[in-house]
Every structure is written in structure tokens, then in C-alpha cells.
Specification:
Layout lengths: L3 H7 L4 E5 L4 H17 L4 E7 L3 H10 L4 E4 L15 E4 L3 H9 L5 E4 L7 H9 L3 E4 L2 H18 L3 E3 L2 H13 L5 E8 L9 H5 L3 H4 L9 H9 L1 H14 L6 E5 L5 E7 L4 E5 L5 H9 L31 H11 L3 H17 L5 H14 L8 H32 L1
Parallel strand pairs: 1-2, 1-5, 2-3, 3-4, 5-6, 6-7, 8-9
Antiparallel strand pairs: 8-10, 10-11
Bound molecules: nicotinamide-adenine-dinucleotide (NAD) and magnesium ion (MG).
Nicotinamide-adenine-dinucleotide binds next to helix 2, strand 2, helix 6 and helix 10.
Length: 411
């Protein structure tokens, strides 16, 4: 067996650009980079950082990792930037894209850890510059897999999944390689905080209840997506694009312990699963050191304490999101874009306490029923569908609010 120290010597020390550096994934990426440097002597040079609004934290990260070029999405928070004069800071809606245009070089590793489809133009720009991509930001593929995947193939870059289920499938496929040897992919789902709740209670769950995930500690948007099972729905579409799998070869199974991160069933009946603790630093480090493995910074599984691994069928009546995603794959065109944009808008409204929890899935379904998908040729096709879906959901929410206000006045 290869010793740890000789494996360290084989790992490529990438130049890294981290998009979404202040988030849950972003901060875990920086921890992994520190761990590789301190415990394995592998120095990944961080050449760019991008964040949405936490300017002070972004500045502190730039100082700690000696980063000379940063991007901040929100102009309102510019005042909190605290960086040396020699540091270049792009600010505004196109900041991450400008960061890529300025610093990205062929062979750099761009880690897409922003939340939502806002990161899409920067990821496409990075692919066009022949950067490898480590992708946590599933919305990029859900909204625009039809242009991201051909661009990645054309640029001949490596696209490494960070999402734990997709990292698991990616690792299982290394043994099977040929995609027609695969019978189906089985994506595991924790089931979220409402796994055992009756439908009526799920519909009126509060923001605090939905943010209380049983196994994973994540940013607010993905935590709400996990509660509605929209996260699994997005992951099905993500898997469809990443592994070129049709909808009828992708399945979901509920696994409350979040230890088995996904399965691949092969045509000969053999099944491979990838397991590990529910800690994103596992798949993140694997993306950083791929194709090698080094001792990580998360706990290893304690088999003595692990008494059972359970698997249950998903209740599609209580959680219809997964079925909607499978239909989106079959419908093609901009349906993934519409699905994603409707969900992002509805989740933001739920977090803002404008709508109840059950409305999220209802609004996504209503949007898919009302807006017909169109073919995707280029980014503007995606942007137009995204905007139309967001407007539709916003209009539905304000209509509902004004009718609620009217009935309050008349009653
Ligand atoms: P988060 O909310 O904790 O962090 C999001 C990051 O994106 C923050 O740094 C924020 O500042 C940044 N951001 C938002 N808008 C931006 C903009 N316009 N420009 C630049 N930066 C911007 O979210 P998270 O939990 O870290 O999730 C990030 C992505 O990774 C999501 O797509 C999520 O689905 C995916 N993911 C997360 C986990 C997890 O465990 N957290 C697991 C798998 C996949
Ligand atoms: Mg996941």
C-alpha cells in the first residue's frame, strides 16, 4: 500500500479560486486547504475569493490566505471591506465574473460554492478559460446543464462533484467506468426534519423548524431545500447532467443516518456504495486531492457506535418535489431552469416569512404548469426562462398577499 507521505508528493497543488468563500461549503474548503498545508505540506495557492455580502469576513479571509483579488456581490456591504491597498476588489452583481476574467488561468481549480444560479456566468467564464471546476453549486447544473456540460466537454476540463451524493457516485463509477454497465443510480436522502411528520403539519412548518436539519449543518437555502426534499429533486437533475443518466435510471431512497452517500447498481446486480461521516470536508478534500486520497480533517466512522443503517421508500405524496424533478428531466429544454428559479424565489419568500412552507412546492409545480419549456441554445435562453419563472412566482405571492389583505379588511 502507498504510504501517506508519498501520496502527498503526488497531489497537484492547484491554484484555487473560491466562489462563495464565506458560506458553509466555502469555509470548509478553506479549512481543507489549511489542513493540506499544515498536515501534508501541500500548498494550494488561493488566488481569488468571492462572496455575496459578508465583506468583513471576506476581507479577513483574503488577509489570512494572502489573496490579492476578491469579489463582493452586494454593493451595500462595500463599506465593510477592510483590505490592503494592494488588494483588488470587484464589487457588484458581476463581481465574481470579473474576478474570473482577471485572475483565472488554464488549469486553475475554480470551486463553485455560491448558493443559487447567481454563480452561473462566473462558472461558464471559468470553463471557457479552461479551469477545472469543483462543483458544490448544484443550481448551476439544474438551471443550465444543457450549456455547462457541452462547454466542459469542449474545453476538456475536469468537473469534480463536491455534493456528497454526486461525489459518492463519482467514486463508485471509478470502479465501473463504462456508463452502460450501470443499471441505476440510487441517491440517498436523509429525509430532512419532517421525515416522520404528517402532511398537514409539514405544510405549515415554521422557518425555525425547517432550518433544524437532523444530520447536516448547511447554509439556509439548502437546509430549506432539504426539508422540502427539493434538495433531492435538484440533486436528481444534477446527477442527470453529471453522469448522463436518463430519469428512469435515477432513484432516491431515504437513509436517515446520512452515512451511505449514494449507491450505483451495476447491470450484473452488483451494488457499490460510498460511505463516510456526514461531513462535507470529506468530498471537498477528495475534489482537492483527486485522484489521490489523504488523511482528512473530519472524524472517521466509529463502527462500534454505528448500530444500524436504515433505508425507507420516499413518500411522494408528502414530498412531491422528486417527482417534479423527474418530469423536468423528461420535459428537457428550460424546464430545469424554470424549476430552479421558481424554487429559489419561493424559498427566499418562505425565509422572509411571506409564505407558508407548503407553498414552496405548490409554487414550483404551478410555475412548471404555467410556463412551457423552450429549447436551450445559449446562456440568454437560460437567463430569459429564469427571469420569467421568478416573475411568475413573485406575482403569485403578491396576488396571494393582496387577497389576504382584502379578506382581512372585509372580515
Ligand atoms: P451558504 O449560504 O452557506 O453560502 C453561500 C455562499 O455564496 C456565501 O459565501 C455567499 O456570500 C455566497 N454568495 C451568494 N451570492 C453571491 C454572489 N452573488 N456573488 C458571490 N458570492 C455569493 O450556502 P452553502 O450551504 O455553503 O451552499 C453553497 C452551495 O453548495 C449551494 O449550491 C448548495 O446547494 C451546495 N451544497 C452545499 C452543501 C452543504 O453542506 N452546505 C452540500 C452540498 C451542496
Ligand atoms: Mg447533497
Amino acid at each position: 500500500m502507498t504510504q501517506d507521505h508519498s501520496t502527498s508528493a503526488k497531489v497537484t497543488p492547484h491554484r484555487v479560486i473560491l466562489l462563495g468563500s464565506t458560506g458553509s461549503i466555502g469555509t470548509n474548503v478553506l479549512q481543507c486547504i489549511e489542513h493540506l498545508r499544515d498536515d501534508h505540506g501541500i500548498t494550494m495557492e488561493v488566488v481569488g475569493l468571492a462572496a455575496g455580502s459578508r465583506a468583513a469576513e471576506l476581507s479577513q479571509q483574503a488577509r489570512a490566505f494572502n489573496v490579492n483579488t476578491i469579489a463582493l456581490g452586494s454593493t451595500d456591504n462595500r463599506i465593510d471591506l477592510d483590505i490592503p491597498q494592494t488588494t483588488t476588489a470587484f464589487v457588484g452583481i458581476d463581481a465574481a465574473h470579473q474576478l474570473i476574467d482577471t485572475v483565472a488561468q488554464p488549469g486553475d481549480l475554480v470551486i463553485a460554492a455560491m448558493v443559487g444560479s447567481a454563480g452561473l456566468p462566473a462558472v461558464i467564464a471559468a470553463i471557457d478559460r479552461k479551469c477545472d471546476i469543483a462543483l458544490a453549486n448544484k443550481e448551476t447544473l439544474v438551471a443550465a446543464g444543457a450549456i455547462v456540460m457541452p462547454a466542459a466537454r469542449h474545453a476538456n476540463i475536469t468537473l469534480l462533484p463536491i455534493d456528497s451524493e454526486h461525489s459518492a457516485i463519482f467514486q463508485c463509477l471509478l470502479a465501473g467506468r463504462c456508463i452502460d454497465e450501470v443499471r441505476r443510480l440510487v441517491i440517498t436522502a436523509s429525509g430532512g426534519p419532517f421525515r416522520t411528520w404528517p402532511a398537514q403539519r409539514v405544510r405549515s412548518a415554521t422557518v425555525a423548524e425547517a432550518l433544524n436539519h437532523p444530520t447536516w449543518n448547511m447554509g439556509p437555502k439548502i437546509t430549506i431545500d432539504s426539508a422540502s426534499l427539493m434538495n433531492k429533486a435538484l440533486e436528481i437533475i444534477e446527477a442527470h447532467w453529471l453522469f448522463d443518466m436518463p430519469a428512469d435510471k435515477i432513484d432516491v431512497i431515504v437513509h436517515p443516518q446520512s452515512i451511505v452517500h449514494s449507491f450505483v447498481e451495476f447491470v450484473d446486480g452488483s451494488v457499490m456504495a460510498q460511505m463516510g461521516p456526514p461531513d462535507m470536508r470529506g468530498p471537498i478534500q477528495y475534489a482537492l486531492t483527486y485522484p489521490h486520497r489523504l488523511k482528512g480533517c473530519s472524524q472517521t466512522l466509529n463502527w462500534g457506535q454505528l448500530s444500524e443503517l436504515n433505508f425507507e421508500q420516499l413518500d411522494h405524496d408528502r414530498f412531491p418535489a422528486v417527482q417534479l424533478a423527474l418530469e423536468c428531466i423528461k420535459a428537457g429544454g428550460t424546464s430545469g431552469t424554470i424549476f430552479n428559479a421558481a424554487n429559489e424565489t419561493a424559498v427566499a419568500a418562505f425565509l422572509d416569512e411571506q409564505i407558508r412552507f407548503g407553498r414552496i412546492t405548490e409554487l414550483v409545480e404551478a410555475t412548471l404548469d404555467s410556463i412551457a419549456p423552450t429549447p436551450v441554445q445559449s446562456l440568454p435562453d437560460i437567463m430569459a426562462a429564469d427571469e420569467t419563472a421568478r416573475e411568475f412566482v413573485t406575482h403569485q405571492i403578491s396576488r396571494q398577499q393582496s387577497s389576504a389583505a382584502t379578506s382581512a379588511v372585509t372580515s
